[in-house]
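Pipeline run #58 for the internal structure catalog. This entry was flagged by the ingest filter as a single-chain record with no existing model, so it goes straight to prediction. Upstream metadata was stripped on purpose; only the residue string is passed forward. Reviewer on rotation: M.T. Logging verbosity set to normal.
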Amino acid sequence: MNPELLGRLRPFREEALKRGLPSQDVERWIATARPSGTLITSGDGPVVGRFGGPLMLPTDAPDPWFPLLATLDCAGLPEEVTGLPLPPDGRLLLFGFPEMTDYSASAGEVVYIPAGTSIEERKTKYPYVYGGEGDEWDDGTRGIYEQFPQDELRLSADVCLPYHFVTAAPEPPHDDIPFPGHPRAGELAEAWLETSGDIAVDGPLHIGGYASHECTEGDPVVDAALKAARARQFRTARSDEPGDAVELPAPDEWMLLAQWDIGLRGREGSTLHWVIPRQDLAERRFDRAHVSFFWNP
């Protein structure tokens, strides 16, 4: 990782040592640091996308069910900043809505549009927000959607450490177990939470890095991956798909694509996570990406 980014972790190191944590444990925790791109709506960083804006899709793509949150320029999100092997060009569209879903279903989707693809602007009323033809509108849902941000997004290079300190066991029922190799993970995570505000950039949308939310004990990416598996099992049980169609990569083979720290009226303190199998991202395959919503009202 960029030495300058690692140098920004000095306040964490000082806080952890002040708490009496052994230096070898502190350095092992620092070794888990990841780069991440924080997208903000002010400052002088390069513009790499925008919240909202026109919905531009390939001419043969279906209208989306969930509303568009953001359109990102992949060329402006290099791997050395985000830690993600994103496509070198084209656009990434993040769709989603901050609400609980039934049967662990995805709360959104990801669409990748390669450079040079023929696209058109869609004039659509998203069915999740406005319902289908003849349906009654949900004023509460529409009220949330009307607060969705509309602004340019600028990139800031960031660094982060794990917010979680337990993990899911690899075998069912995937109970929580201590973070492997880090017997003082809980204390280290507390030190990171104490100092992260002085280290990490404060922004609403994060690309790559570690996932977090208001009650992070386990990894939200693992939780989302398990939900993706349950959702696929449920869909398969109600269809004629073969049994092996339910198989997805193990939870530890998924990664955070994006995180939206929401802060809308009526959804204060909630979070959306877009997660994806690591191999799918390397192959530029986004159909199995899963969107998970967390809220502790």
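catalog note: The chain has one domain: 3-294.
catalog note: The radius of gyration is 20 Å.
status: ready for reviewer M.T.
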